[in-house]
Amino acid sequence: MSILLIRHAPHGQLGETLSGRTPGVLLGEVGLVLADRLAERLSGHAIDRVQASPLDRTMQTARPIAQACGCAVEPVEALNEVDFGDWSGHTFAELSRDPLWSRWNHVRSQVTPPGGEPMADAQSRIVSHMQETAQANDGATIAMVTHCDMIRAAVARVLGLSLDNLLRFDVDPGSITHVVIDESGARLAGLNERPAL
After folding, report:
1. Backbone angles phi, psi at 166, to 5 degrees
2. Mapping DSSP to helix (H, G, I), strand (E, B) and coil, where does residue 111 land?
3. What is the Cα Rg of the chain in Å?
4. CB of 166 closer than 8 Å to CB of 159
């Protein structure tokens, strides 16, 4: 089966604040346009299901895709953002002064956000969901709208990379990463493909 891992389109706090699981973070004007572009691009694919993290920005990105593909959005907790705990809602300028934040960005395998979720747990969460979905939907194409670090974690598992190497590749807002899962295992068929605005 094919899984299209889609990072949500840009929101108003992008690049300034670690939104995490903060409710009410909505797509900005550019994000709404990009969500529509994603829907146009994917409308020609035979997408069987559209799933999304339950956060507002992912659901907003998923709805036009689902409408274009003639299906409903399925909220899936396993696709939720990493729980950044006490870091959620802080600006990146504030976080840059925290030595633990610096360590997190260099050794994700060894650092847990204060009050949050270890990266290994987040990785297990999304990878398990992908594997279970593949087993139950042989031959299907499923769009999963989720978050940057969740996609990075899934790609790292597929490629056999350490969690400490997550920042070595980009996953842009509104991008599509294609993973194929079949009897031979999982393989990366496309990374960080983004429709033009």
Report:
1. -60, -30
2. coil
3. 16
4. no
